[in-house]
Amino acid sequence: xxxxxxxxxxxxxxxxxxxxxxxxxxxxxxxxxxxxxxxxxxxxxxxxxxxxxxxxxxxxxxxxxxxxxxxxxxxxxxxxxxxxxxxxxxxxxxxxxxxxxxxxxxxxxxxxxxxxxxxxxxxxxxxxxxxxxxxxxxxxxxxxxxxxxxxxxxxxxxxxxxxxxxxxxxxxxxxxxxxxxxxxxxxxxxxxxxxxxxxxxxxxxxxxxxxxxxxxxxxxxxxxxxxxxxxxxxxxxxxxxxxxxxxxxxxxxxxxxxxxxxxxxxxxxxxxxxxxxxxxxxxxxxxxxxxxxxxxxxxxxxxxxxxxxxxxx
Length: 313
What we know:
Elements: H1 2-29, H2 34-41, H3 48-58, H4 64-76, H5 90-125, H6 130-144, H7 147-161, H8 174-203, H9 206-213, H10 218-255, H11 261-270, H12 274-302
Helix pairs in contact: 1-12, 2-3, 5-6, 5-8, 5-10, 5-11, 5-12, 6-8, 7-8, 8-10, 9-10, 10-11, 10-12, 11-12
């Protein structure tokens, strides 16, 4: 396992290097000009002299290759630079906003675990029943509904009409309920369908049929044998889901004014804040690759039959 982890970490370094090149290139291919955006943000006249001065201050007058190498040297030292707009450390801004995004993601994961597991089990135990049909209909709606539209519906119902929950902010736990539920909705639908399908598939396998033939109760076969096997494939998708939740939080955070990375990146793109955009892309890439590595290791630990590349079989 040690050699496998070393190999994956080496591959991750190469991947992050390529991501850094792509991030640096893409932000400079964006329409608009960072110097003009900065002058507009401080309500200063956009003149040729002012643009030249700002470009010199931001280092944008240097050749692109020199800009990239200077930025990469700082990144290696865990310094993501300084924001064009706020003049604050990009690392500090990302750290603060990342904390809020992780809180939102963690609460969404709670919603997913609490709802998808019982719904998937209820639907999988009695396929074709009225309860199964109802759950399948709910999951269809949940998976097909855009998150921004669902967010506005929840705000309209629970905040504006019923006045049970606040619309925006992050001061109390109640501010977390609506955005986390919105972010979790499509994943609840996805995992409910996966659990249902896994239970139906495993209930038809020999070991489950043999257990029933020996006189074991259906619930005993389900909880002791079928469910653990049905949940195994889910662990392989957890890393991808958590990574996509982090990046997918952009829309939800802006709908509910949640002060996470999503709001930060939207304001950075609007202001052509290159260091913040580049830092955001790198952080998401690092988190995504680490989550996938962690899920691979977890699957290997939980399932001894799995063997890594290069190990004896």
